[in-house]
Amino acid sequence: MAKKTDTKARGKGQNQGKGKDGPVAQSAAAQAARGGDATDYVTFVIAGQLFGIPVLKVQDVLAACEVTRIPLAPPEIAGALNLRGRIVTALDVRLRLGLPAAKAADDRMSIVVEQSGELYSLLVDEVGEVLSLDPAGFQRNPPTLDSRFREYSNGIFRLKERLLVVLDVDGLLDYEAATKAA
User: Pfam families in the record, alphabetically (predicted)?
Assistant: First the structure.
């Protein structure tokens, strides 16, 4: 059911080279060549849970980088970082999901996504590999899924070893809806 199409993120402190011309873009091209049956997901781990987002949402994958705190920002906004001259808002996905803060902030990695013309860095514990998954294996959120995950999840895939929760990037970054609900 799951086919690995990329290797695990390598060393910390280096740009992982998964931008438009790197392995992420190649995976999308490979998907088109296969006929588009499978969907590719960039996987990552937060607090021991495996998550994924569609590879087409990912602009870049970065190893640990310096994040400057923004005064008066919500706690889940870790700050801002400079990515090749562009200011990128860094979102601590752990805190957004209601999980405790990471003990070692220096070892965290970033997945850069774009929403409405703005770049956002999703801070995660570890970036995994790109998995090509058959859409037939996609399931709606089960009632037993942690409520903290359910709010920002599109659904799940049951893999051999573990459960992959597919995050809704747009929902994760939608602060207007969160403000209206409060």
Answer: CheW
- What residue has token string 């992982």? 16
Half-sphere exposure of 99 (CA within 13 A, CB side): 17
What CA–CA distance (Å, rounded) separates 39 from 133?
5
> 74, 87 in Cβ contact below 8 A?
no
**47 vs 124: CA distance, rounded Å:** 9
pLDDT tens-digit series, residues 63-77? 888 899 999 999 999
Whole-structure pTM value = 0.76
Sheet with 126-133, side-by-side order of all strands: 2-4, 126-133, 39-46, 49-54, 163-167, 153-158, 138-139
At residue 4's C-alpha, the angle toward residues 20 and 161, to 5°, is 130
| CA 181 – CA 136 distance, rounded (Å) | 33
Domains identified in the chain and CATH numbers: 2-181 (2.40.50.180)
- Residue 6 CB neighbour total at 10 angstroms: 23
Compute the distance between CA of residue 135 and CA of residue 121 in angstroms, rounded to an integer.
Answer: 27
